[in-house]
Inverse folding.
């Protein structure tokens, strides 16, 4: 296999469907990924919004195998592989490389708080050395509101110096545009994804690579449209349209709300299930969400057809 | 096997030794646990201070097997078994029960933040139902400074009502005495461990069961002395002595400092290793730590003999 190209564009941290016994539903995930690809959306499976940290390493390996074996293109995949424990991160990352994934999105180990950049550098180094594969491409995952362990600019600088061909990019889910901007300015050639489409236009104007966003699960085509036409006169209007839909979603717990929308617009109620500690939307919340989206003429074109093709 | 008794006394979240390749060193852990038992200290293996969240489930299962197969008494063990993912927590918890552990110390799933008590109740319920063993005894692990996901009083009340014979106690590592006090008052018969020996005297006076504390790794006999003589006239002095040693330790990153002390007083330098993202003490820190402990006449009696018996 040749070395993977740098990824760019719009990626979805694909929501993970569960069966009635809360086991992962591989067939539904394959279909959902096919639909996302049909909308020009790449696959950041096993992200925060995928409930990936509620899955065991074995479950993630089995799902990845089901996707690739099911014909989903691994060159459009950037699975999340970072866990608290180096052996788990190594195992999942090595498997993703072996299956041909174009890159991995890597959380820092996130249980211990207040750890040093030196400690995080050692953790990433240990993973890279143990995976030991020149095809490995790491996109660092900076999401301090959830992980509580940040990936600082100084840490990035050190990793880039030590592993220039391996550490190639970042997803910045800090929600702080000034941080994304600092990454773009300080590291030319580094692949910077905004962690939300709210920053997509600014990120593209600053030389960024696109976005990896929760709401790309439900609104991928519109987000991709801004990605391809950010230099057009309509760009600001497109951004405003994206912000409007995101604003609706943000009134609810994000993951259950994404799943409620997929269930409704895909006409497939099984999608509402979440794994504890998350809780599905209440019936009242669900109605409020759908009414607000309907009012905006929101649709997920083609999704119901994909779901019907079970 | 008969149902396990309620645990009480002083417990150590036993530090985990690593080999040069950062793999767990089972033989050293067995010896350390024997020494701790000789000091009347119970074994809360796989706690926060054990770097348990830097270990895979497989590594923890192998270590637990090595301990029990090595003759370490499981009725004196309360392994930490809570992880982010229900299947992992179930697997490790079921194994601990099978090997005869008197209880397990269970973190809530800790990746997703801001989750509801309803979601956490469902997570604990799912684990209890899946383990499905009447011998299971859960001690809830409340450590908001690290896990960032709290175990509220309302959640405890709900779990006690639903699983009165299974959910039997808590370790309160909030560092907030008023929270521990509220647990003692609101739940008579609930087994409340203070998360630090700093609160041991207050906890015993309030009807608590003892403490599970980082520094029990190095100062177990003195902590146990206060546990057995908290009603004596010397109790306040004993508490002050414990606070003095803990004060020294808290000037340094706790886990590397514990390991540095074990390495020094046990004359076994291999103990200094930590897994990333943690970093061992610098030479200057180590000297400062040992000087401060030596100045107080600190010793770890019998530890070097245990280490020499490799």
């Amino acid at each position: 296999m040749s070395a993977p190209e740098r990824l760019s564009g719009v990626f979805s941290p694909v929501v993970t469907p569960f069966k009635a016994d809360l086991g992962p539903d591989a067939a539904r995930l394959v279909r959902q990924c096919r639909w996302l690809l049909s909308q020009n959306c790449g696959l950041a499976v096993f992200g925060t919004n995928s409930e990936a940290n509620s899955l065991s390493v074995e479950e993630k390996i089995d799902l990845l195998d089901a996707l690739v074996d099911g014909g989903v293109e691994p060159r459009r995949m950037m699975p999340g592989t970072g866990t608290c424990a180096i052996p788990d991160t190594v195992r999942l990352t090595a498997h993703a490389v072996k299956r041909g994934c174009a890159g991995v999105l890597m959380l820092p180990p996130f249980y211990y708080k207040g750890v040093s950049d030196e400690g995080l550098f050692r953790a990433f180094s240990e993973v890279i050395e143990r995976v030991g594969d020149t095809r490995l491409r790491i996109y660092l995952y900076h999401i301090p509101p959830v992980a509580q362990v940040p990936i600082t600019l100084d840490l990035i600088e050190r990793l880039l110096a030590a592993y220039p061909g391996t550490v190639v990019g970042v997803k910045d889910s800090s929600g702080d545009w000034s941080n994304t901007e600092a990454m773009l300015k300080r590291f030319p050639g580094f692949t910077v994804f905004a962690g939300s489409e709210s920053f997509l236009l600014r990120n593209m104007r600053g030389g960024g690579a696109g976005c990896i966003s929760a709401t790309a699960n439900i609104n991928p085509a519109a987000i991709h449209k801004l990605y391809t036409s950010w230099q057009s006169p309509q760009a600001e209007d497109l951004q405003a349209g994206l912000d409007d839909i995101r604003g609706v979603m943000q009134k609810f717990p994000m993951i259950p709300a994404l799943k409620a929308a997929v269930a409704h617009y895909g006409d497939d109620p099984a999608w509402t299930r979440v794994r504890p500690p998350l809780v599905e939307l209440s019936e009242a919340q669900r109605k409020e969400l759908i009414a607000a989206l309907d009012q905006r003429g929101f649709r997920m074109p083609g999704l119901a057809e994909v779901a019907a093709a079970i």
Q: What stands out?
A: The mean pLDDT of chain A is 97. DSSP finds 13 helices and seven strands in chain A.
